[in-house]
Design brief:
By secondary structure, the protein is mainly α. It is 40% helix and 9% strand. The protein has one domain. The longest helix has 20 residues, at 68-87.
Length: 204
C-alpha cells in the first residue's frame, strides 16, 4: 500500500481493488500532546484512536499484512487527497467507497456480507481518489501538488503510532530505548511474536 504519492506516480501505482488495509497489530495508545485519545492531529483536527482501531477491526477479516501505521497514514492524508480529487473533477462518493469494500469482500468470500463504518469508508475513499488522480493526464503535476499540500499540513503524531518524517509521512514507531527485545531461546522468548509481513493485499 502506498501513501507517498511521488513514489506511486513514478512506477509504484496501486490499483483500487487491492489497495485497502488490514490489521497487523493494534496498540493501546495514549493521546497526542494537547489532544487526549488522538492517534494524530492534523491542522487542529484529531484523528481519534477509536477511528484507527475501528478501521483495523472492520478490515482485518478481508485484508492482510499491513500495519497500524499504514492505516493512520491513510486517515491523515485522506481529506487532502479526496479534496484534490474533487477539485480535479474526479470526486469520490460514499456509494463508491461502499461498492469497493463490498467488491473486495465478495472477492474474498463469495456471498459474504460485512458492515463498515466511517473510518473504513475513509480508507476506501482515499483508495479510489488516489487511483483516479493517478489516471489523470497530468499525473506528475498532480503528484507535485499533493506532495506540496501534504507538506503544508500541520501534523502531530502520537509516538506510539509512529514518527513523522519528511513531507509529513508517517513511519513506524521507534522502539523506546529501555525496551529490551528477548533473544531467541531466552526465558522471555515464548515464540508468540514474529516480524510483521510485508504489505500484501489479499484481493486484487
Amino acid at each position: 500500500m502506498a501513501v507517498q504519492w511521488r513514489r506511486a506516480v513514478r512506477g509504484k501505482a496501486v490499483r483500487t481493488a487491492g489497495l485497502l488495509v488490514a490489521l497487523t497489530t493494534t496498540a493501546g495508545l495514549a493521546g497526542c500532546t494537547g489532544e487526549p485519545g488522538a492517534a494524530a492531529v492534523v491542522d487542529g483536527a484529531a484523528v481519534p484512536t477509536s477511528d484507527v482501531e475501528a478501521a483495523l477491526t472492520e478490515l482485518m477479516p478481508w485484508f492482510e499484512g499491513v500495519t497500524t501505521t499504514n492505516v493512520l497514514s491513510v486517515l491523515v492524508q485522506e481529506p487532502t487527497v479526496v479534496e484534490l480529487a474533487e477539485e480535479q473533477g474526479v470526486g469520490v462518493s460514499d456509494e463508491e467507497a461502499e461498492a469497493l469494500l463490498d467488491q473486495v469482500v465478495q472477492q474474498k468470500v463469495a456471498g459474504a456480507t460485512a458492515t463498515f463504518t466511517e473510518p473504513s469508508l475513509a480508507v476506501a475513499r482515499y483508495s479510489i481518489a488516489y487511483s483516479k488522480l493517478q489516471d489523470l493526464p497530468d499525473a506528475a503535476g498532480i503528484g507535485d501538488e499533493i506532495d506540496a499540500r501534504l507538506r503544508g499540513l500541520d501534523v502531530e503524531v502520537n509516538p506510539r503510532f509512529g514518527s513523522l518524517e519528511d513531507g509529513n509521512q508517517i513511519a513506524a514507531p521507534t522502539p523506546a530505548p529501555w525496551i529490551v527485545v528477548p533473544q531467541a531461546g531466552s526465558p522471555a522468548d515464548d515464540g508468540s511474536t514474529e516480524p510483521a509481513p510485508a504489505p500484501t493485499p489479499s484481493a486484487s
